[in-house]
Design a protein that fits this description.
This protein is α+β, with helices and mostly antiparallel strands. The chain is built from 5 helices and 16 strands. The protein has helices at residues 100-110, 112-116, 119-123, 151-164, 166-169, and strands at residues 12-15, 18-25, 31-35, 38-42, 50-56, 60-68, 75-77, 82-88, 91-94, 96-97, 127-132, 135-140, 174-176, 181-189, 199-206, 209-219. The chain has a 6-stranded antiparallel beta sheet with strand order 1-2-16-15-8-9, with no helix packed on it. A 6-stranded antiparallel beta sheet has the order 3-4-5-6-14-10. β4 and β5 form a beta hairpin. The protein starts with 11 loop residues before the first strand and ends in a 5-residue tail after the last strand. The model is unreliable at 1-18 and 113-149 (pLDDT under 50).
Length: 224
């Protein structure tokens, strides 16, 4: 059984000069479910992808993806099957979907102690306990104001989540036999800070079939 349990507070984040909330947009025959306020987008295409944004900062994001092979043949799947773009004022700006090898290199550059950290020790804020499939890990809560957190702190927390799950749960090359499913987390980087009105477009690609998942950035009301 695949599920994500995400506290509602995790959908709030300070970005650039404004705080934005990322909202999912249902396309075609997609469905959306919620677990404690956290949205999960589902599709019934060949891979039956399920996508959840676990955590995000000014210009980085950690997402969780589950795919299932519904065909009668093996399928090779990796981060190369995932494409992410940012749509802003009619322009499509490619985002970086980090490979496992890139994350290993980042962790090595940061040092072994950093790679071993979890969200609470890296950022010094409260953490939520989140089951991911059959795996449990801690993730820092996402509710900030610019006066209490800065861009560097956001990035450290994203890295902490990623590094702590690197060896076991990070998305990497996997052969899916018919009927098998596969889950993994992936880190995504954007060229610029997320802004109100931005649209984040995920594409899960398998041969000639592409499934798109859309999220839009909206401003957080001042009285929240």
């Amino acid at each position: 059984m695949k599920f994500f349990l995400i506290p509602a507070i995790m959908l709030l984040v300070a970005c650039s000069s404004n705080r934005v909330v990322i909202h999912p947009q249902v396309l075609n025959k997609q469905t959306i479910t919620y677990a404690r306020g956290g949205p999960q987008l589902h599709s019934q295409t060949i891979l039956q992808p399920e996508l959840t944004i676990l955590d995000y900062s000014y210009d980085e994001m950690v997402a969780a993806l589950t795919v299932t092979n519904t065909t009668s043949e093996p399928i090779l799947f990796s981060e190369k099957n995932l494409k992410v773009e940012l749509s802003r004022s009619g322009d499509l700006i490619p985002a970086t979907v980090y490979s496992y090898e890139q994350i290993v290199e980042q962790a090595s550059e940061a040092g072994g102690s950093t790679a071993a950290r979890v969200g609470d020790t890296a950022v010094g804020i409260g953490v939520g306990f989140i089951p991911f499939g059959g795996i449990a890990y801690t993730v820092g809560k996402l509710f900030y104001s610019l006066s209490s957190q800065n861009n560097e702190a956001h990035q450290k927390r994203i890295d902490s989540i990623t590094f702590s799950q690197m060896n076991k749960n990070y998305l990497r090359k996997q052969t899916l036999q018919p009927g098998e499913d596969y889950s993994g987390i992936v880190k995504i980087g954007f060229e610029d800070d997320l802004q109100e009105g931005d649209q984040i477009i995920f594409q899960v690609i398998e041969n000639n079939e592409t499934e798109k998942f859309n999220f839009v950035c909206k401003s957080l009301p001042e009285n929240n």
